[in-house]
Amino acid sequence: MRIVLLGAPGSGKGTQAVRLKSQLGVAHISTGDLLRAEVAAGTALGVKAKAVMEAGQLVSDDIMLGMLENRLAQPDAAGGFILDGYPRNLAQANALDALLVRIGQPLDMAVLLEVDNELLFQRLAGRAQAEGRKDDNPETVRERLRVYAAQTAPVVGYYRERGQLAALDGVGTLDEVYARIVAAVGARR
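^ that's the sequence the OP posted. Answer follows.
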């Protein structure tokens, strides 16, 4: 299975992706982790990304897509993958589709975890306190949710129009949400 996992910050994408990875036996690809690994390894794309980040800018779509293409060529991704954190906008969704078609691994589905903004805010505040994450402070959380609504939420429509979207309730216990995801993935197999 080749899956894109969508949802606002704090919706549980990363947590559920780890669980689903084990169930499906596919690679879990977090673009944040991928970016950090490429920078740490000093790859050509990692060096470019590091320079951009040190200048206080966002890593370009071309650099991220190149990193993603390299990652998808790894043996553990041959049987499928779960993308967590990508695509973040419509341009990335189009570029991802083109890449996946070119490498012969077209997307099977996109799973959206829907969670109310107030609950997202509570989850992220709790995570900030428990884990000391600076990107989960109240001001940053509000900005991250605003950016998600403006840039990433339209990606939901992109996959809905293609008949690839499974929109699921992301509220409940970890097991309840996971059961919804497994049922949706099972229905697409």
